[in-house]
Amino acid sequence: MIKHCGAIFLLFFLVTSCACPALKEPDMHLHEDPLALQKTDKEAGFSIDDSTKKMMYEYRTLSANTWVIRVGDMLRDYISNVAKYSFRVLQEDASNKIPLHIHFRVDSYKFEDCRATVDMTISVSRGDVLVLNKKYVAQGKAAHQSTHLAFNAIFHEFMSDFIQKVND
């Protein structure tokens, strides 16, 4: 009987302690939010810093699962599925061919106490002229959606700054 309990415990431990990628798709309710992001009629290109593209964050749950958060992938998905609706056109443009260019860099990311904290620098250039360069910090407070909620808070503030400083 004790052997069976030990085998069951071992099987349970092996099954529950696997590394699981965290859900990276944005919650679709964010772009339908009544407090939706401000809009501009501008066309812009964007790029994501190379270190952000590779950024991953791992944490262990109480049940010994390891979750892997691919921060760069989540940011790209957020921009492509939510933030793009704030612009007439917003498309990835690593070569800066579009005259108005937005560059995103996540300076730090952490997930503690079921909430994500994101520090992100966003810079906007018009040709060779830097017109906005600001660090944004936000927390998402819902465990499953916290990264996207933090991105949403950052983009609310960013779009307000964008409209004040870049929109002419």
Walk me through what this model shows.
The chain is elongated and about 50 Å long. Strand 6 and strand 7 form a beta hairpin. The chain has a single domain (2-165), classed as Rossmann fold. The termini are far apart. Helix 3 (71-81) packs across helix 4. By secondary structure, the chain is α/β, with parallel strands linked by helices. 30% of the residues lie in helices and 36% in strands.
The count of helical stretches stands at 4
Report the β-strand fraction as a percent range. 35-45%
What's the end-to-end separation, in Å?
A: 76 Å
Order of strands in the sheet with most strands: 5-2-6-7-8
| Total DSSP E strands | 8
- Give the CATH topology: Rossmann fold
Look at the structure and give the CATH class: Alpha Beta
Q: What count of structural domains?
A: 1
Query: Unreliable stretches, pLDDT < 50, 5 or more residues?
Result: 5-27
Strand-helix topology:
Layout: H1 2-16, E1 19-21, E2 43-48, H2 50-54, E3 56-60, E4 66-70, H3 71-81, E5 89-92, E6 100-112, E7 115-126, E8 129-140, H4 146-165
Parallel strand pairs: 1-4, 2-5, 2-6
Antiparallel strand pairs: 3-4, 6-7, 7-8
Helix pairs in contact: 3-4
Features:
168 residues; Rossmann fold; five-stranded mixed sheet; three-stranded mixed sheet
Task: Give me a quick take on this structure.
The chain has 168 residues and is α/β, with parallel strands linked by helices. The chain contains four helices and eight strands, in the order αββαββαββββα.
